[in-house]
Amino acid sequence: MSTEDKADNAANKIKGKAKEAVGKAVGNERLQAEGKADQVEGDVKQAGEKTKDAVKDVFRD
């Protein structure tokens, strides 16, 4: 996984946590849901990148 991809995925998760927190603070359920979705998106992308790395390692050996 490239450093840039890791940073993008981490940024998505941080953005999502912030949105969720703001949504909770102001009582905005839609913003909370968007925040959770951003976090899930970051997790899914990170899992995909890890899978690509694992496949590369298998074929490298």
Strand residue percentage: under 5%
How confident overall, as mean pLDDT?
91
Helix percent band = over 70%
Largest sheet entry: none
Total count of helical runs of at least 4 residues: 2
Unreliable runs, pLDDT <50, ≥5 residues? Answer: none
Helical/strand content category: mainly alpha
How many beta-strand segments? 0
* Rg measurement, Å: 15 Å
Sketch the topology as an H/E string, one letter per element: HH
Shape: elongated
N- and C-termini, Cα separation:
18 Å
Task: Describe this protein's structure.
- The protein has 61 residues and is mainly α.
- The protein is 92% helix and 0% strand.
- It is built from 2 helices and no strands.
- The protein has helices spanning 3-26, 29-60.
- Helix 1 packs antiparallel against helix 2 (29-60).
- The longest helix has 32 residues, at 29-60.
